[in-house]
């Protein structure tokens, strides 16, 4: 069996803005964005959603996140994206970039398991954990 897990995020009308933000914050690129209004599902789109994203993606760091604007989207609970980085300065850069208009749950800091770790919920409601793979200073 060949399994290839991928991450798919659902947004309540903010997919465009979220993917542009992630591309800018994490040095990535936004892929193709397919719109509700230009799809065979156009008639099923809520009023005013023709320009919203039916399916799209953003890539950074060698991996891709897919997502869409989903009518009546509910926030995910018990879920976060863990972003592992190799150097403390990379952890700081990623955490600071994702912190724009975010709720910081755990400030970026040294822990007993890593040189830097922090957790936040970004402005789009997505939880992120930033973890530096280096051993903490002793």
What does this structure look like?
There is one protein chain. With 138 residues, this protein is of the alpha/beta class. The protein has two domains: 7-69, Signal recognition particle alu RNA binding heterodimer, srp9/1 (2-Layer Sandwich); 81-132, Signal recognition particle alu RNA binding heterodimer, srp9/1 (2-Layer Sandwich). It has two helices and eight strands, in the order E-H-E-E-E-E-H-E-E-E. The chain has helices at residues 15-26, 88-98; strands spanning 7-11, 29-35, 53-60, 63-69, 81-85, 103-109, 117-121, 127-132. The strands form two sheets. It has a four-stranded mixed sheet with strand order 1-4-3-2, with helices on one face. The protein is elongated.
Report a brief summary of the structure.
The protein is α/β, with parallel strands linked by helices and 138 residues long. The chain has helices spanning 15-26, 88-98; strands at 7-11, 29-35, 53-60, 63-69, 81-85, 103-109, 117-121, 127-132. The strands form 2 sheets. A 4-stranded mixed sheet has the order 1-4-3-2, covered by helices on one side. Strands 5-8-7-6 form a 4-stranded mixed sheet, with helices on one face.
């Amino acid at each position: 069996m060949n399994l290839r897990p991928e991450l798919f995020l659902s947004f309540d009308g903010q997919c465009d803005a979220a993917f542009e933000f992630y591309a800018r914050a994490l040095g990535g690129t936004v892929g193709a964005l397919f719109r509700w209004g230009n799809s065979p599902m156009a008639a099923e789109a809520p009023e005013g959603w023709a320009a919203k994203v039916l399916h799209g993606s953003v890539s950074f760091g060698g991996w891709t996140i897919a997502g869409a604007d989903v009518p009546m989207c509910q926030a995910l609970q018990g879920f976060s994206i863990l972003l592992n980085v190799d150097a403390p300065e990379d952890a700081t850069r990623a955490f600071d970039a994702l912190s724009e208009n975010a709720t910081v749950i755990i400030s970026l800091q040294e822990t007993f398991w890593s040189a830097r770790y922090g957790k936040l919920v970004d402005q789009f409601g997505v939880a992120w954990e930033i973890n530096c793979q280096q051993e903490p200073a002793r």
